[in-house]
Amino acid sequence: MDLDSIIESVKNYEGITRKKPIKEVVSLLNDVDKVSGKTYISFGDDASAIRIGDGKLLLIAADGIWGRLMEADPYWAGYCSVLVNVNDIAAMGGTPIGMVNVLSVKDKETCRKVMEGIKDGVEKFGVPMVGGHVHPDTPYNALDVSITGLVSEDAIITSCDAKPGDKIIIGIDLDGRQHPSFPLNWDTTSHKKPELVRAQIKIMEEIASKKLLTAGKDISNPGTLGTLGMLLEASNVGATIELEKIPKKKGIKWEDWLRLYPGAGFVLTTKPENTRECISLLESVNITSNVAGEIINEKKLYITLDDEKKTLFDFEKDLIMGIQEETQK
Amino acid sequence: MDLDSIIESVKNYEGITRKKPIKEVVSLLNDVDKVSGKTYISFGDDASAIRIGDGKLLLIAADGIWGRLMEADPYWAGYCSVLVNVNDIAAMGGTPIGMVNVLSVKDKETCRKVMEGIKDGVEKFGVPMVGGHVHPDTPYNALDVSITGLVSEDAIITSCDAKPGDKIIIGIDLDGRQHPSFPLNWDTTSHKKPELVRAQIKIMEEIASKKLLTAGKDISNPGTLGTLGMLLEASNVGATIELEKIPKKKGIKWEDWLRLYPGAGFVLTTKPENTRECISLLESVNITSNVAGEIINEKKLYITLDDEKKTLFDFEKDLIMGIQEETQK
What we know:
Chains A, B: This is Methanogenesis marker 2 protein. Two copies of one chain form a homodimer. With 329 residues, the first copy, chain A, is α+β, with helices and mostly antiparallel strands. Chain A has helices at residues 3-11, 14-17, 21-27, 67-72, 74-91, 108-125, 194-209, 223-235, 254-257, 275-283; strands at residues 39-41, 48-53, 56-64, 95-104, 129-135, 142-152, 167-172, 177-179, 182-187, 215-218, 238-242, 261-262, 265-270, 288-296, 300-305, 308-314. Chain A has two domains: 3-17 and 157-314, Phosphoribosyl-aminoimidazole Synthetase, Chain A, domain 2; 36-152, CATH 3.30.1330.10. Chain A has ten helices and 16 strands. Chain A is globular. Chain A starts with a helix and ends in a 15-residue tail after the last strand.
């Protein structure tokens, strides 16, 4: 196991490098929350949050399904469009309410497969797909899904509130398989009963309502360390991670494991006194969890393995999204 | 002026014919609202509605911006993505809360233009774009926007509750121009101050809260009569429309006028005793409004002009969306 090789493979992974244009897009929308004055979180988190009164926040997220996934397996793309959106709301500590989609298809067969995947996703996760828009005549196939959820302002989990001294918990459901048509998807839900899958989403609501976290994100396209990197960037802090404390399925190479998109996986930060309860709640729903590191003041992400310590990201130089997030408290 | 030519041009307009695949897509999702049991309106309306307690409904809508519009004018596509979504919430009698977008671009220049259009739309309509997703590397340019709003269950405006004997009010802001790069867009907002544009959205909330309507939709891609057709289909009724009662800008051919997508335009149904108040509210914000017809039991849309009476749609045979809507009351 070679730390340099692991670091290289993570740093150059397209799941991370393609996040860069976020900065450019967001900079064009600088003043957006002046118009209503109710925005609580805008760009840079798993979902955005808007005050709707009575201490409640409306959560909205949107995910475009990566074209590669649509090409590799339209059914799985449809299924994943539900999975990723529901996880975005879970990662904020919220309750998912409903989804809408925009489906662009060039042929009926793709349309049918995507919709079957969506249907199975809806039944697995228990969140309705209530509407949308169909482009029946596009020269390409694409799927965008948006989800809305609700959360209390005093319970929301953000990406931007990790503080030096916080412990980093990484939780990943190890009971899965690499999806045959898209091996970077760590499929942890297809073979599971809806009850357990829904409980994995629900546990984040419970952890949030108990205020056990300082920050958190669901592990998505950038993989475990890329997702952590985005959290660090949003919080304007750094971290040290002990590689071997990251929960991992035996028999999969680290280079692959760290780039996988798990069906149920979270990067969370907690005060040291809350780590035990948090881990115990996650493990009650089959999400294997460890304290894998600590938040530090220095704006770097260090990875350690045995006696080695290397820099994965230097946030003074390396930008993932290029934006920092701030809640409007 | 030839009624047959007008009917032919409306019937064969792509803005209407491309709604057909909705049926096929929806049929694949038949059972979606079984999963949460909270869905109030799913497919077939301008926005979907989900119960969130205390008599409140969450509204969610999604619109994919037509590829043609993206090609013709990316700035205008960005601007319109805000306009169409805000109108979807207005058409339900709701308050728009916030939007998210998924932007797929193949080049930076298009990205910049789309985002500038979004920014100007946000400033005009006063609804924040709070987040989203960027695909920086797609072989095509596409923009999907989703909006969330709130409305009381006892005030929501649906498409499916028009009843025989109701009057049909058509309201269109005549102070506009055909957009130079997309002449089927009747641009009524670019040149107006945000105050008036926002008041045109707000007036629908007031009309809804006063319970003046039985049904309503905003006029969108299918044009005035195509939109009315979708409302009739959703309500399982028919109508007679007097062509010359439809508010119209002088100097534009009927064949064009009826296919235009206006920046502020609504097709509404009311009990006869409420028409006057409804029209007076719409006209207070510069939306010229007339009683242009009546809902009938027979499932046809008839158009009359002088002594002529012709059938535009026979809903026993012609389907626009192919679905009927039912609120889960």
